[in-house]
């Protein structure tokens, strides 16, 4: 249950398009914060630039809306200066994977104690649907009119390799699981990375025959396979379906973390 | 408790229609004053959260509330039923 007093009611309704999944991710994050019992003046939301990064503007806490891709750098600064604050970072795929890729891998390597929620909508939604590093191969966007020819970034696997303490991936359809994953990430000391695949019917679905919100959600739901199922398919030697991505908890470990208050 | 859709926030994405296990939300047909076709409620008293939230003391189901990107779905307290006189005109 999300308490309505976490929302800045005078700013609602927000500017997201009809059916945009970012609002769902805000709901899940606030439900997880509510579950953790964090106070409003002990929580800081940091974001960069993009659709996803407008999220802290609708939340009634202290927040930082920073430069493009540098949300993690600012958040590291906040955590180093005030280790008693709880830091949550909202970023998008263009923010985290493209321009802020270097900050991302180094934040994972340092294992700074914060929660990073990446709203991955496979596209640069705000600036008109340009292809991002997470655009799946073959998808049509305004900079890849004949279909994206490059392989896409797997952000969750990247965070596992770079050394984050908790990594999970869910979609905006799996609201209960996503809430549990965000809460688990908040409990884990060290950097917790939760990739949330969201729908963008306006700029991604419109060019890829997924114009309606339900078609886009159905596409996300049918292409998600659980980690256990992926492992079972690999063990049995069966092929993993084309275009499928794993969802679930990918790693949980106890590497030494930075910025944890003793 | 009573299920309500805040029509000043709803943008008509119909995600609630997709997720409700009871089929309480139905796609609307009429434009409202903001030019949006908001979903309509079909017998909302069937909602498990409306009936049993007070008994269990916690949120039950609540998927529509979580998935609504516009924070438009909520439950409001309802006054207990009061019998009132109905005048029938013949």
UniProtKB/TrEMBL annotation, chain A:
Keywords: Oxidoreductase. SUPFAM superfamilies: Thiamin diphosphate-binding fold (THDP-binding). It comes from the Archaea. One of its GO terms (molecular function) is oxidoreductase activity, acting on the aldehyde or oxo group of donors, iron-sulfur protein as acceptor. Signal peptide: none annotated. Its EC number is 1.2.-.-. Residues 49-195 form the Thiamine pyrophosphate enzyme TPP-binding domain. One of its GO terms (biological process) is sulfur compound biosynthetic process. This is 2-oxoglutarate oxidoreductase subunit KorB. It comes from Methanoculleus chikugoensis. The gene is korB_2.
Automatic annotation (TrEMBL), chain B:
SUPFAM superfamilies: 4Fe-4S ferredoxins (SSF54862). GO terms for molecular function: oxidoreductase activity. InterPro entries: 4Fe4S_Fe-S-bd, 4Fe4S_Fe_S_CS. It comes from the Archaea. Residues 1-30 form the 4Fe-4S ferredoxin-type domain. This is 4Fe-4S ferredoxin. It comes from Methanoculleus sediminis. The lineage of its organism: Archaea, Methanobacteriati, Methanobacteriota, Stenosarchaea group, Methanomicrobia.
